[in-house]
Amino acid sequence: MKTHRNIPFFVPHAGCPHCCVFCSQVKITGQRADKDIATESKELRELLENAGDPGGRQSRIAFFGGSFTAIERKRMETLLSIANEYIDKGVASGIRISTRPDCIDSEILKVLKYYRVTEIELGVQSTDDKVLSASERGHTAKDSFKAAELIKNQGFLLGGQMMVGLPGADPVSELQTAKDIVSMSCDEARIYPCVVFANTKLYDMTVAGEYKPLSTEEAVARSADCYCVFLNGKVNVLRVGLHSSESLAEAPFGATHPAIGELVYSKVYENLIAERIGTARGATAKVMFRSGDISMLTGNGGEALKRIKERTCVKEIELIPSDLDRFDIKVTVTNK
Fold it and tell me: In b/e form, how buried is each residue of 186-213, taking b as 16+ CB within 10 angstroms?
């Protein structure tokens, strides 16, 4: 599946009408929100001037970090106008923004289309209203479905962000969220295992014993199950987990493994291969897969292969690297 290069510009903790229990944008982005428009405009121009060779159809100017459509209108249009200047210069061909479901309506979509926004990521997080309430999101699942419909009807590319391990969530509600994101006709998705940062309400809830963070193993298993829903629904998963950074390492609780994405990809391979093999006691399984992903099967002492053998009862697994796409595996089982 085709991917685009993002030129990210962070608008941290800006525009959000609610402070979710898990939110710590300064920690996640490493930036603060207290900037005037002139300073922010200068920083955006500097970023785009130094963005490297023009990316043409392969680049998007991406506004991340807050609810972009909820910031002060003059500020939003100033940033979009600057981005448009650099689209004209060939630095990028479009703009990506992220925002909340309750900060989208027909009028704002007209503004975004005028400024050549091409892709909108919605922070759905969950489609379970009990989970949304416990997380103090300030919107309902209905808002997510309504926003998604408006975005798709206007011809934007739609991304859906979800989290695993939120307060009140369980594997069933998370799988349903993934299925709902597919049903929204999302083109892309991101999966974020919940991480507990200091100075958040979720941190206080954790210390008080009101919330139990996921272990890395739990986060990997639940994220992998959601990933498989997206695979089956032909939704491109852009990323699993926050970017590894010093700030992430400082999070005291939650699935903070710096390579959690790789662990999830390994688990997805394990699930797919085990499902394709079924129960084949004493047989040999030949698995053809993307050559660049061999470490996802053989890394960490070959734990993934060991678990596949335990789950399927096969005697041997023969790995055959090929030019297949990621997760497009071919399995042949033979009895000797």
Answer: bbbbbbbbbbbbeebbbbebbeeeebeb
Residue type, 194: C
pLDDT band at 25 (very low <50, low <70, confident <90, very high): low
How many C-beta atoms surround the C-beta of residue 214 within 10 A? 22
Residue 131 has pLDDT above 70, yes or no: yes
Distance, CA of 45 to CA of 62 (rounded, Å): 13
Q: Report residue 27's pLDDT band, with 50, 70 and 90 as the boundaries.
A: very low
pLDDT of residue 1: 46
Rounded CA-CA distance 200/25 in Å is 10
Q: 275: Cβ–Cβ under 8 A, 6 or more apart, which residues?
A: none
| 5-258 to CATH, choices 3.90.700.10, 3.90.960.10, 3.90.1300.10, 3.20.20.70 | 3.20.20.70
Segments making up each domain of the chain, as ranges: 5-258, 277-334
Model confidence at 35: pLDDT above 80: no
pLDDT at 228: 97
Give the model confidence (pLDDT) of 274-303 as tens digits. 999 998 888 999 999 999 999 999 988 889
Task: With beta carbons less than 8 A apart as the criterion, state whether 123 and 145 touch.
Answer: no
